[in-house]
């Protein structure tokens, strides 16, 4: 492609509102442009990278008998009302009306549409299993779109859905999909981990996320430093054998702690440590107020709490509700002398505290010498806290370390979460009607492009991996007005294209410095420069990732390209 005939609007300066490297470079190198918050256009170079990401995904989906479809983004509200999600999804779900005031959703995902499609077609176990996928635009009115393509409001997803007559069949496809995802992210050249994850409100229990390891990642991964255990921190179990303390129990004493609110302040004021403090929080699970205790140096994991309580929703109770329940403000709450009937849950670590410090449910007062069981009762001890670095790995091998990650893939065993409410059924071999057993599997295609951009760049620009680069070779005659250079450039352009290399021929009448800076910014794997030694048949090759430059005879160009690209 002749650069003078394409559209690559590079920028010298870093756009002010671009706060991560991938976003800065995708804008500066002319791959994307922002239309409005969380909404982007893919320019020619960006579209070429997207297509290369999509073709790798398509190939691996087809390997596991995934069949491609394309479903509408405009989804009639009735489908979402069947599953109830029309009512329990808030402003994040884009809603529109048609000219007849009928309600529609802009597709945030397609579980409802695909199930409605199949329930009218797939009626027998003989037609199962079936795995369908699409690469399609999704809409989610994110509260805080940021980091460019990493968290947009309109984005491209590969979403697959599988339908089965048995759990075993789902398990088999789930493992196939996990392997396909591993192949995809490996072929994309990404540094990633598959981690145990939380299915949240999506239903089903088994779910894995695929995380690209990156400091700008919004998720935290807890992994073992000596096994392949890895989980989203939300899901990482804490299995520690706490040891009973030899310390002798002291008498419970009420002490004044004026203006001491945080665990840190109280611990310093009473010359103790957060590990000896009993942190008392009040949560609202569905509509019930629950007192939840943890050790002062630990954080309660609300996703674990939701599972232990088997609640639909779990959130911190608001201060007014707390005041009404315990006649006391947050900061002096404690588990002693609670109103009758208030359920008390505690993380396992609390059970091993001896002579702990806790709030007295009276502003500016705390207790010392507080001992669980003796001074207050706990209805249920459970694993309720976030794992911390240094904790033993839940699989018993090694110690836990944390890493930040960008979620690029998420796979779920949905079971009958959608087929039952939507009456998606088939006749089994005994002619009995059964709900489909389903799985769903997503890859954030536009997010993957940004994750690759985040991993493959240096101070001068991108260093695209060969399999994703918008073009293979950047052909740059230093001075198009020099007849020898221009002629050799045309000749080599034809030659390289005839060998099916994708070539970006910078035929612009720009200064060499501009051309070279743009070439480094765009980051194609190889730059072929035709300069003043063209008259000697000498050209210069620059390998972008290795950063090395060599001069070769133009007759050697092809073998050099074959050596590099094959
Ligand atoms: C919504 C909105 C946001 C959402 C969803 C629905 C996330 C929603 C989860 C999934 C699950 C899988 C198929 C492909 C892989 C992921 N955010 N999810 O369902 F209405 Cl506003 O999308 N779906």
From TrEMBL:
Single annotated GO MF: proline-tRNA ligase activity
CDD domains associated with the record: ProRS-INS, ProRS_anticodon_short, ProRS_core_prok
Subunit architecture: Homodimer.
PROSITE patterns, sorted: AA_TRNA_LIGASE_II
Domain Aminoacyl-transfer RNA synthetases class-II family profile: 38-465
Domain remark text: Consists of three domains: the N-terminal catalytic domain, the editing domain and the C-terminal anticodon-binding domain.
Keywords from the named record: Aminoacyl-tRNA synthetase, ATP-binding, Cytoplasm, Ligase, Nucleotide-binding, Protein biosynthesis
Protein name: Proline--tRNA ligase
Protein family per UniProt: Belongs to the class-II aminoacyl-tRNA synthetase family. ProS type 1 subfamily.
Function recorded in the entry: Catalyzes the attachment of proline to tRNA(Pro) in a two-step reaction: proline is first activated by ATP to form Pro-AMP and then transferred to the acceptor end of tRNA(Pro). As ProRS can inadvertently accommodate and process non-cognate amino acids such as alanine and cysteine, to avoid such errors it has two additional distinct editing activities against alanine. One activity is designated as 'pretransfer' editing and involves the tRNA(Pro)-independent hydrolysis of activated Ala-AMP.
Database matches in Gene3D superfamilies: Anticodon-binding domain (3.40.50.800), Bira Bifunctional Protein, Domain 2 (3.30.930.10), YbaK/aminoacyl-tRNA synthetase-associated domain (3.90.960.10)
Top-level taxonomic group: Bacteria
Organism from which the protein derives: Chungangia koreensis
Gene: proS
Chief subcellular location: cytoplasm
NCBIfam families, per database record: PRK09194.1, proS_fam_II
């Amino acid at each position: 492609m002749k650069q003078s005939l394409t559209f690559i609007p590079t920028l010298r300066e870093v756009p002010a509102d671009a706060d991560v490297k991938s976003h800065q470079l995708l804008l500066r190198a002319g791959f994307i442009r922002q239309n409005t918050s969380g909404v982007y256009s893919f320019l020619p170079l960006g579209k070429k990278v997207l297509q290369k990401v999509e073709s790798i995904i398509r190939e691996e989906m087809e390997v596991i008998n995934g069949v491609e479809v394309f479903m509408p983004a405009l989804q009639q509200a009735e489908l979402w009302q069947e599953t109830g999600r029309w009512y329990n999804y808030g402003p994040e779900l884009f809603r529109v009306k048609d000219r007849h005031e009928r309600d529609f959703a802009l597709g945030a995902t397609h579980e409802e549409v695909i199930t409605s499609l199949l329930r009218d077609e797939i009626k027998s176990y003989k037609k199962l299993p079936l795995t369908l996928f699409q690469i399609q635009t999704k809409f989610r009115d994110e509260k805080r779109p940021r980091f460019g393509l990493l968290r947009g409001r309109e984005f491209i997803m590969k979403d697959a859905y599988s339908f089965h007559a048995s759990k075993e069949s789902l398990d088999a496809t789930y493992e196939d999909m996990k392997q396909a995802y591993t192949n995809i992210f490996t072929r994309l050249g990404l540094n990633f981990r598959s981690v145990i994850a939380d299915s949240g409100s999506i239903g089903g229990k088994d779910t894995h996320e695929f995380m690209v390891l990156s400091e700008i990642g919004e998720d935290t991964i807890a992994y073992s430093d000596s096994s392949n255990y890895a989980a989203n921190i939300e899901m990482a179990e804490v299995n520690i054998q706490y040891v009973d303390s030899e310390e002798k129990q002291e008498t419970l004493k009420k002490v004044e702690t004026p203006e001491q609110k945080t665990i840190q302040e109280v611990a310093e004021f009473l010359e103790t440590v957060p590990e000896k403090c009993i942190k008392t929080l009040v949560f609202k699970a569905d509509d019930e107020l629950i007192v939840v205790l943890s050790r002062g140096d630990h954080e309660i994991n609300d996703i674990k709490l939701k599972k232990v309580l088997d609640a639909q929703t779990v959130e911190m109770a608001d201060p007014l509700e707390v005041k009404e329940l315990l006649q006391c403000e947050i900061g002096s709450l404690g588990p002693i002398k609670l109103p009758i009937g208030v359920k008390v849950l505690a993380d396992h670590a609390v059970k091993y505290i001896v002579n702990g410090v806790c709030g007295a449910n009276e502003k500016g007062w705390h207790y010392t010498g507080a001992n669980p069981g003796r001074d207050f009762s706990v209805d249920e001890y459970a694993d309720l806290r976030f794992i911390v670095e240094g904790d033993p790995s839940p699989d018993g091998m090694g110690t836990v370390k944390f890493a930040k990650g960008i979620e690029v893939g998420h796979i779920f065993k949905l079971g009958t979460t959608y087929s039952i409410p939507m009456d998606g059924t088939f006749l089994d071999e005994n002619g009995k009607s059964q709900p489909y057993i389903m799985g769903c599997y997503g890859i954030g295609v536009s997010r993957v492009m940004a994750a690759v951009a985040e991993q493959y760049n240096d101070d001068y620009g991108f260093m695209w991996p060969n399999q994703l680069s918008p073009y293979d070779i950047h052909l740059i005659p230093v001075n198009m007005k020099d007849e020898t250079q221009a002629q050799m450039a045309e000749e080599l352009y034809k030659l390289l294209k005839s060998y099916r290399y994708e070539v970006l021929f910078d035929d612009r009448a720009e200064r060499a410095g501009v051309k070279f800076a743009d070439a480094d910014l765009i980051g194609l794997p190889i730059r072929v420069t035709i300069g003043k030694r063209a008259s000697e048949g000498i050209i210069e090759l620059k390998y972008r990732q290795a950063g090395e430059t060599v001069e070769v005879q133009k007759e050697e160009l092809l073998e050099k390209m074959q050596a590099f690209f094959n």
